[in-house]
Design goal:
Largest sheet: 5 strands, mixed
Distance between the termini: 23 Å
Structural class: alpha/beta
Shape: globular
Order of helices and strands: HHHEEEHEHEHEEEEH
Oligomer: single chain
Length: 249
């Protein structure tokens, strides 16, 4: 980036030097008197075109990384897939949402979506994460390309009625945001083998999970395109910008 800006400055300086030397008033008047005004016009337009072209070529192009297990903190990834560095996608799934409906990958087909992991009785980071997800819901509620998906890490506690009450309290729009529960083993596996965002809990308790603050951005091809701190509104605002970027691809 620094190198590009340096090159751009040098090219700009050269262009300005040539232009000023060539197009000083005395020279313009001299050429005009010789009926070479057309040359002046052509040269000026050519310089402008070259300048704009160089500027556009040197502008950094926005890109979003495609994440794989190898790119992520090993603590958040199942040991069986930590070596994978390509072609990682979110597999098929089936969970029950706040309305008792089975939600599968088909409900998110060709959608951009944001996934996270929470539980309704969480006293620490979850309330902040939920408030920021509510903020994000407001931003994307009229965008048909985008949805939200929150998984409970305590599905034995977060039953459908509990999720429904929580959804009502937070103003969840059913058509945009699914809060899901299900078999604890399935949630554990999708958290650590798919979304790559949950740590293991107590070793003596099978499938125990310690969720993190991560919001995960998933694209239309079911690939991970970004991780964001869901407790930080500035990070969530950046997430929203990246959603808009993916929406335009």
């Amino acid at each position: 980036m620094v190198k590009k800006n340096s090159v751009f400055k040098r090219l700009t300086s050269v262009w300005l030097f040539i232009s000023l030397k060539t197009l000083n008033l005395h020279f313009v008047m001299k050429l005009y008197q010789k009926k070479h005004f057309g040359f002046i016009l052509f040269f000026s337009i050519l310089c402008i075109v070259i300048f704009i072209s160089i500027y556009l070529l040197l502008q950094p192009q926005k890109r979003l990384k495609v994440y794989t297990p190898r790119d992520v903190n090993p603590e958040l990834v199942d040991s069986t897939i930590q070596h994978i560095g390509y072609n990682h996608t979110i597999p098929d799934f089936a969970f029950t949402n706040q309305n008792g409906k089975i939600i599968t990958q088909d409900d998110y087909k060709d959608k951009i979506y944001v996934a996270d992991f929470f539980f309704t009785t969480c006293p620490s980071i979850c309330p902040i994460m939920t408030d920021n997800m509510v903020w994000l819901q407001e931003k994307i509620k009229n965008n048909p390309k985008v949805m939200l998906l929150s998984h409970s890490v305590t599905p034995d506690i977060d039953s459908v009625p509990v999720l429904k009450a929580y959804a009502n309290e937070k103003g969840v729009i059913d058509s945009k945001w699914n809060l899901v529960t299900g078999d604890k083993k399935d949630i554990y596996y999708i958290a650590r083998k798919s979304y790559l965002v949950v740590k293991t809990g107590r070793p003596e308790e099978l499938y125990d999970m310690v969720h993190t603050e991560n919001f995960v951005l998933i694209d239309q091809q079911r690939r991970i395109r970004g991780f964001y701190d869901g407790t930080n509104l500035e990070e969530v605002m950046k997430l929203y910008e990246d959603i808009l970027f993916l929406s335009q691809e």
